[in-house]
Amino acid sequence: MATKIPTITLNNGAKTPSIGYGTCQALDEELEKALEKALEAGYRHIDTAYVYQNEKVIGKVLKRWINDGKLKREDIFLVTKLPHAGNRPEGVVKYLKRSLENLQVEYIDLYLIHGPYGLPDFEGDFPPKDSNGNIILDMSTDHIAIWKAMEEQVDAGLAKAIGLSNFNKSQIERILKNSRIKPSALQIELHAFLQQNELVGLCKENNILVIAHSPLGNPGVNKIAEKLGQKTDHPDILGNPTVKAIAKKHSKTEAQVLLRFSVQQGWLPIPKSVNPERIKQNLDIFGFQLDKQDVNELKSLDADITVLDYRRFKGVENHPEFPFKDRIKTKN
Ligand code: A2P
């Protein structure tokens, strides 16, 4: 039996399950198998993006489930994202139509602008780089003009809801002041070590759903380094003693504690996993409750530590809309 997942109502009136399945980093056959397991387990909110290069596989699996009568389109809450290379008004409809075709659907439940800085429109691996390894940027990104084009996709019925990802507070405020259709969601990195209270507060005040990517702190980076015998400065949230103690107290895994914390904070976590047991385990978080003391202890782990290392994108901070100037170095 698939797990029954509580729902959250968005500001457009649509409902989404309160936990989703993250697909960033998974591709091809590995993702095809994992998504089968995720749907069997009961995930119905699926998160992808044009730049993840996995929309076609997701479309194939969803189509199969729909054709087999195991699923109706409206049972799924599908999220995808406008790539940075499409961050201009004419890019919105171009890339949204590509995503619809890849995913083999007529509409997207939630279409997000993937990030606030723009890249030139290019085909190829993300990100485009010059001969010195610097990311090639399009400095002319105009959020208000892009947002108008996003609103037109709602009018056209191609996106049921629209939102943002990786935008900072002042960028969101500017969109809120200059929009006809308000953003329904903000997807950001969010976990015990990076709780972003101010940004989350702004979203709550404006009825914007907060989606937490990397809710486990993306521990895969540590596992790879361990296998290669390499040292890494990647934070280890699953290994944190407070998280471990709370997991022991509830006879749950560290991951379940972190995901339960996300849900209790009102965030919608989208953990990634390609492992069938962990896929199931991550959904099994609705039969227990963290108490006030647990929550306070987890809140106290907030240390502005990010796992998404922007140093990978050399020179990205030079873009006028780069959102996290203070976060260009991973603090650890
Ligand atoms: P795997 O696919 O082998 O399960 P995040 O969503 O925070 O970015 O984390 C994703 C990473 O966390 C993946 O490497 C995934 O590896 C691992 N992961 C997912 N679920 C669990 C879990 N329950 N316990 C430990 N690691 C997990």
From TrEMBL:
Residues of the active site: Y52 (proton donor)
UniProt-annotated site: Lowers pKa of active site Tyr, residues: K81
Pfam families per record: Aldo_ket_red
GO-annotated molecular function: oxidoreductase activity
Domain NADP-dependent oxidoreductase residue range list: 20-302
Keywords of the record: NADP, Oxidoreductase
InterPro entries membership: AKR, Aldo/ket_reductase_CS, NAD(P)_OxRdtase_dom_sf, NADP_OxRdtase_dom
Residues engaged in binding substrate: H114
Family in the record: Belongs to the aldo/keto reductase family.
Name of the molecule in the record: NADP-dependent oxidoreductase domain-containing protein
Protein's organism: Cryptolaemus montrouzieri
